[in-house]
Design a protein that fits this description.
By secondary structure, the chain is α+β, with helices and mostly antiparallel strands. It folds into two domains: 114 residues, D-amino Acid Aminotransferase, Chain A, domain 1 (2-Layer Sandwich); 163 residues, D-amino Acid Aminotransferase, subunit A, domain 2 (D-amino Acid Aminotransferase, Chain A, domain 2, Alpha-Beta Barrel), CATH 3.20.10. It is built from eight helices and 15 strands. Strands 7, 8, 9, 10, 11, 12, 13, 14 and 15 form a nine-stranded mixed sheet that branches. Strands 2-1-6-5-3-4 form a six-stranded antiparallel sheet. β13 and β14 form a beta hairpin.
């Protein structure tokens, strides 16, 4: 069954401080966020009615907004409360949630300081980035021709709409070539990340992952590293060259949407399943459904 387009769905969206019927949550086409990318966002997960790492996502959103001169007209605590109220009003237990803030229609030039800032939160029943078959056997990814930029030329440690154009292009390139997703290199030619996720490798029962110096240090990434260390698994954050890939036994992606997704193939390199991945999946699954931690 084909999913409904997002402008045809039912329910409510928290929009500029009030709940608006889903299909009425509209903006004018000449808004700065659409025309110039002045929009910051966060993707979150709702598990059993509770938002995982809600405060941490909210803090990161405000950090992103500060860097882009987007002055959010609400406090962090007001946003956290609005998210929780939305979950109750939407009557959703397991969902994907997106909150975002953007500049409106006051100015239509590169310079947008002083313009009105808007804020919205939406949540919908969870979807999957990959097919059930791909998730079961492990996804196939390829190295993209698109690279993560030099941090001296681009704000690489925040989430904003404009930065995801190259990620979209990388994933489209991969799908057109028969793969499920892409792996991006950095501006120096080292392994960076997936199209919208962080990447990990396993060798000799140890985990290796790129240093997040030109891409986002994901909240899920940080959580998985904490879990691994707690379980006594060594984690090495290091520079990984494409040639190093052939040394590894297994690989997986992490992210809010993909959670922990095993990789079965990267270009011509085949990976096998590993008990460490299953351990991380089990521990992460227990963590996200722990109410005391899911709201922190």
């Amino acid at each position: 069954m084909k999913a409904l387009p997002f402008d045809k769905r039912e329910g409510y969206i928290w929009y500029d401080g009030q709940f608006v019927p889903w299909q009425n949550a509209n903006i004018h086409i000449l808004n700065h966020g659409l025309q110039y990318g002045s929009c910051v966002f966060e993707g979150e997960r709702v598990y059993d009615g509770y938002i995982f790492k809600s405060q941490e996502h909210t803090k990161r959103l405000f950090k992103s907004a500060l860097i882009l001169d987007i002055n959010i007209p609400y406090s962090e605590s007001e946003i956290v409360e609005a998210k929780e109220e939305l979950v109750r009003k939407q009557k959703i237990n397991n969902a994907y949630m997106k909150m975002f803030s953007w500049k409106g229609c006051d100015k239509m030039t590169i310079e947008s300081m002083g313009g009105r800032v808007h804020f919205a939160i939406a949540a919908w029943e969870i979807h999957s980035d990959y097919s059930d078959a791909a998730k079961k056997t492990g996804i196939k990814i390829c190295t993209s021709t698109w690279r993560r930029p030099d941090p001296r030329t681009f704000p690489v440690n925040i989430k904003f709409s404009g930065s995801y154009v190259m990620n979209t292009m990388a994933k489209h390139e991969a799908i057109k070539s028969g793969f499920d997703d892409a792996m991006m290199l950095d501006y120096q030619g080292y392994v960076a990340e997936g199209s919208a996720s962080n990447i990990f490798f396993i060798k000799n029962n140890e985990i290796h992952t790129p240093i997040p110096d030109c891409f986002l240090d994901g909240i899920t990434r940080q959580t998985i590293i904490e879990i691994a260390k707690h379980k006594g698994i060594k984690v090495f954050e290091r520079k990984i060259s494409p040639e190093n890939i052939f040394e590894f036994d297994s690989a997986f992606l992490t992210g809010t949407s993909v959670e922990i997704t095993e990789i079965s193939q990267l270009d011509k390199k085949l990976f096998r399943s590993h008990e460490i991945i299953e351990t991380l999946k089990d521990e992460y699954g227990s963590l996200v459904r722990n109410r005391a931690l899911a709201t922190s």
